[in-house]
Amino acid sequence: MNTPILWILLPILAAGISLFFLRYRYLLRWSGLGFGVILATSALLLPINEVFKFLFWDVKLSDQLLIFGRRFILSGADRPVVVLLLFLWAFWLLIMDPELVPMQFIPLSLLGIGLILTAYSVEPIFYGALFFAFLALVYVVLLSPPGKEPTPGVLRFLIFQILGMLFILFAAWLASWIDLNTGNQVMLARSLLILALGFSFLLSIFPFISWISMVGERNHPFLVGFVFNTYFLGVFLFGTRFILEGGWIGQGVNIQVPLQIAGAIMLGFGGFMAVYSKHLGRLMGAVIIAEIGRSLLAISLFQAGFPIYFGMVILQSISLGVWSLSLTQLQQGIHDLDFHSAAGAARLWPILTSGLLLGYFALAGVPLLGGFPIYWSLGSGLSFFPIWINSIFVLSTLGLIFGGLRLLEVLTKNISEESILILGKPYYRYLILGLNIVLILIGFLPQWIFSLTRSISGLLLGS
Amino acid sequence: MPYFLQSLLVALLFICGAGILIVPNRRLMTGLLAIQYIGVFLLVSVSWPLEIAVVKLVAGWMASAVLFLTYQNLPGTNSDGRMPLGLPGTLFKGFTAVLLGVSVFSLVPTALRWFLGATQQQVLGGLWLLGLGLLQLLLIRDSLRTIVGLLTVISGFEILYATLEASVLMTGLLAILNIGFAFLGAYLIMASNLEESS
Questions:
Q1: Which chain A residues touch B187 with a CB distance below 8 Å?
Q2: Does the predicted TM-score (pTM) go above 0.90?
Q3: How far does the CA of residue A436 sit from the closest CA of chain B (Å)?
Q4: Whole-complex ipTM
Q5: B161–A173 CB contact, under 8 Å
Q6: How many angstroms separate the CA atoms of A150 and A143, rounded?
Q7: What is the span of the domain harbouring residue A351?
Q8: Phi and psi (nearest 5°) for A287?
Q9: Residue A50 resides in a domain
Q10: Alpha carbon A106 to chain centroid distance?
């Protein structure tokens, strides 16, 4: 037995089998949740490359799988990534409403997680780009449930991801050529440029950002939340490993400045979009664009930035989760997600809209909520860098908060209907309240998150 | 493979790529896609052993067959699967295809410095398909044509990449990706006709 079989092939196999049981909504959801928790716990506890007793047998879990001469490795150092991704999947299953979310979400999301882990574990790492192409195929199907036309945003997402894959494969080949001709600065610059273009497509860095708001506006909010959450996390994990293992830093290349420029541009766009967005889906897109920017800025701080980045991942997952859950439930009461249709919703459905507001404000970085201490740390780390980066950081955060205040104004607008209506099952309302409390608690007790994320980044960077 | 035959293959690739962009008939478009894969296979076989290169042909034909069978059996479509397109639109696409062909042709000497093991025809064929596929992606929003555009882009890339690397796993994964695209295209064409799941 080895870890890639246990944590990659087994979930992919389970995803395939679960396609045959789509009609049993609740059975699939709860068994999937159990499966996810068991797998994540196994990733947390099982010793790797050591013999241990399992029931009556002595078992040794090797850390690699060999296929056609290529290795797939999930060692002890990769544990945090496996645990994070599997718990993330279990979390999205916990908050999904099987009545409102297309059932193919369960198998396709599990397949997606399996593919992210495959892309992360493959050696040589540039093969991972191909698995991201497969992931894009899976997520396109996920975002285009039966009965709905595929939206232009989804098609654009597919195109950009495939182009990104091609550029990364080509850049990786160029980089391998440099190894044989050490010191060829022209080739190094060319390959870096192509690599940057490839990752720009994958991470939707300006000018390839259009699909984010298009998908946010036209597709199912729950599916969009999941895709935004896991896709970008996967690309960041893959990109980090690509940079660390590919020896790009070792070649004396300064990637900090490009990362910070890209991060500042994305954060600026996100903040700007949040000010002008008049659609709940587009507002989610704006926050995601800003989050990509913040993630790039955090990673540009290298060792000091990784705990901040993982803190942002945890916060983003909870915030996006509560936002998507609330929006999915709210869709039953309002016919469209534009501001006009959502006017006064907080007076009719206060709990559902509280999820929207807290999820959004936590990601915007409002004080006393979960995002504030994390973004404060990021801002402190960036304070040693040029003033324009810090200015964009502050202005964009203000833009995001302004967008949130507009949302608050719209949701609490007086529309002459004052009675509180009940929408959705009590379980989901309690879930929204619970997640709201978690977001507030993170704001008050950030040291819990930081101690966790410091150990995650310590394990990963120690590898 | 003789120089003249390679040149003929490249010409065939350009005609197929431009034809896919221009023709309004979906059946003809898929036919051209299938012919295009013959050219791709033969150009790849310049760098690779025939038994590995043939994977490109098999995967490409499977992809074409999946797409053809899907819209052929789709309920409520007209018999020839024709997409509405006026003469000005066709002329514009034809003109841009020719413009792209000429531009790429002029870039080949520069590109040859990047692909050291490739012949001039391989580079030209690969770049033409890449360009024509991208043009298709830029000009059209239809999901089927987007998939065909992506298949054309990947075909161009495969010709170029074959001159750089000959990994069995990479070949297999790219073949699966091609077929995956076809199934995705089939799904996207049918998605709106399927029963809603929630």
A1: 141, 144
A2: yes
A3: 27
A4: 0.91
A5: yes
A6: 8
A7: 254-463
A8: -65, -40
A9: yes
A10: 17
